[in-house]
Amino acid sequence: MPLSDAPLLLALAGDRPSRTPVWFMRQAGRSLPEYRELRVGTRMLDACLTPDLAAEITLQPVRRHGVDAAVFFSDIVIPLRLAGVEVEIEPGRGPVFANPVRTAADVDRITAIDPEGLDATAIAEAVRLVTAELGDTPLIGFAGAPFTLAAYLVEGGPSKEHMRARAMMHADPDSWNRLAGWLARISRRFLEAQRDAGASVVQLFDSWAGSLSPADYRAFVAPHSRAALEGIGIPTIHFGVGTGPFLSDMRLGGIADGVGVDWRQTLDEAAAILGPDVTLQGNIDPALLAAPWPVLEAHVQDVLARGRAARAHIVNLGHGVPPETDPDQLTRIVELVHAG
User: Is 152 a catalytic residue?
Assistant: First the structure.
């Protein structure tokens, strides 16, 4: 089968392939015993920047589950690390930055780094290794959206409400827009490196967008996310958590070919909001992966039924695979979706 006929790519083009495509956010990683074995003794960011290791981790769920796409194994802070920003992943906490960006001077300091100078050699090599083995299965490249990256940078690490980042938008909108604009260029450079090395699709993740009001999203975030994706030249998916109040804006003015929907909103409701010319992705509730199979099976069937309201549907979770998930549950979902 030519890559252009892959169910994922057909769905993003607005067709309904004979087999509904399915993949899972965070399918590569902690839920797989082969991943945990491979990662022993290697720090997260080091694993992301070791091409043969990153490639093998990317391929593991494709081999195990038979999903319709690989998603590149990396971390949203990797492009910042490649740009020279000091960041580490603290186990049990997440990304932590040595020098948070909170003042106009801080913004001056970090935006002096030229995104075009980002050395993505290791990323490109890993993508080439992956695509050489994938054959007719597409690879999804990804990057963090400007707001989510800024939320980490301004807070200095993970936060529940992202108060400092949201405050900067109003207290110093010029600094906010300079920072978010720079992050859009960083994310785009990361996406372009994956595209140029062989990724067939890119997805922009805005994990923390749900902390924003619709007005703030439209004024301070959407223009920068659009800049990260617009004109990238391959199909695009835009995903955020908790974005129901401004779901229509997640199309970014029509440039997103697919929009991810979390578990809070049914797909038929989302289709009515987003309209007939966008593909939906989602929205199995990750919590139900821990439920008995008959319960999960009924939920997946309901997701499939409601997804028929959209022009096309890519089955996925409403967020990422929890680390404690039984991998066999994911394999069974793939088999169920493919059985149609």
Answer: yes
Distance, CA of 176 to CA of 182 (rounded, Å): 10
Confidence (pLDDT) at 126: 98
Determine whether 308 is an active site residue.
Answer: no
What is the rounded distance in angstroms from the CA atom of residue 265 to the CA atom of residue 93? Answer: 28
* Catalytic site residue from 64, 68, 75, 306: 75
State the residue range of the domain holding 125: 3-339
Domain count, the chain: 1
What the block records as the tokens of 215 is 């007005």
- Phi (first) and psi of residue 82, to 5 degrees: -65, -25
Q: Find the catalytic residue in 152, 185, 189, 206.
A: 152
Give catalytic status of residue 35 as yes or no. Answer: no
For residue 159, what pLDDT is reported?
A: 87
User: Any idea what DSSP says for residue 219?
Assistant: I
**For the domain that residue 170 is a member of, what is the CATH number?**
3.20.20.210
- In this prediction the pTM is 0.97
Q: Which of 15, 16, 19, 30 is catalytic?
A: 30
